[in-house]
Amino acid sequence: MSATQVQVGSLLRDWRQRRRLSQLALALEADVSARHLSFVETGRSRPSATMVLHLAERLEVPLRERNRMLLAAGHAPAFQSHDLDEAPMAPVRAAIDLILSGHDPYPALVVDRAWEMIAANRAVSLLTAAVAPHLLEPPVNVLRVSLHPDGLAPRIANLAEWRAHLLDRLRRQIAVTGDPALAALLAELETYPAPPAPAHDAGQAIAVPLRLHTPNGELAFISTVATFGTAVEVTASELAIESFFPADDATAAAVREHVERLPRT
User: Is 125 helix (H, G, I), strand (E, B) or coil?
Assistant: First the structure.
């Protein structure tokens, strides 16, 4: 029994437990023998690359972690990974540029799996106005900028509600990915000063808005998040594009006025 076999079994068991599945439940879902699955988890059986990928798919393991599982089982990674500025990523960069420019004059930005800002359109400057310079030095972490007392937080009219929304998104991401770096980020964000948790009262709301104090009055946005749904490349699979839309006519007018004063890039 090799160390490699023990490692892949441990990874598989961790992901199964994270998904709250018993060995029998996973075996039935994946249509494999429960005995064979037990042997894989304990290191008594070395799974083929096909078996690793099959089980990882059933467990909805992120592509980066599927590569890790393959390596742990002694196989080559199955999914390519590139920096965004590499040639194979040109179609992804083009799609991002098209979405960001097409959303003008309203704010839109792209973040990676660590919530670091990869790209943004010029309207995002409306959101980052008055943010302390040290928070805008690369790599810019969007959650840190949003909730840090030197960041956007003092300008967010509904900070308790928006903070709860962001932290809930981060907790769900941690549950899905098991990323310890995200867990450390959550622990940091939870130390920031915060108002009392909001009472749960959905009322007539259709989404959690971002309400922002500005020199032009309070602006309100709702947002959408888009991903590359068919991505089979690691970096592309981890990108998220968040687009902000005005929640009322006054916000729409204020944003257009702000962007009209900005130089075109």
Answer: helix
DSSP string of 52-109?
A: HHHHHHHTT--HHHHHHHHHHTT---SS----TTSGGGHHHHHHHHHHHHHHTTS-EE
Phi, psi of 128, deg, nearest 5: -90, 0
pLDDT, one tens digit per residue, over 51-60 is 999 999 999 9
Q: Residue 231 carries which DSSP code?
A: -
Instruction: Return the structure tokens found at 265.
Output: 């890039």
**Gap between the Cα atoms of 248 and 245, Å rounded:** 9
pTM: 0.89
| For range 103-115, the mean pLDDT | 97
Instruction: Summarize pLDDT for 209-223 with one digit per residue, the tens.
Output: 999 999 889 999 999
Instruction: Locate all alpha helices (DSSP H) within 104-243, ordered by sequence.
Output: 125-128, 142-147, 159-177, 180-189, 234-237
Q: What angle in degrees, to the nearest 10, is found between the helix axes of 63-72 and 49-58?
A: 140
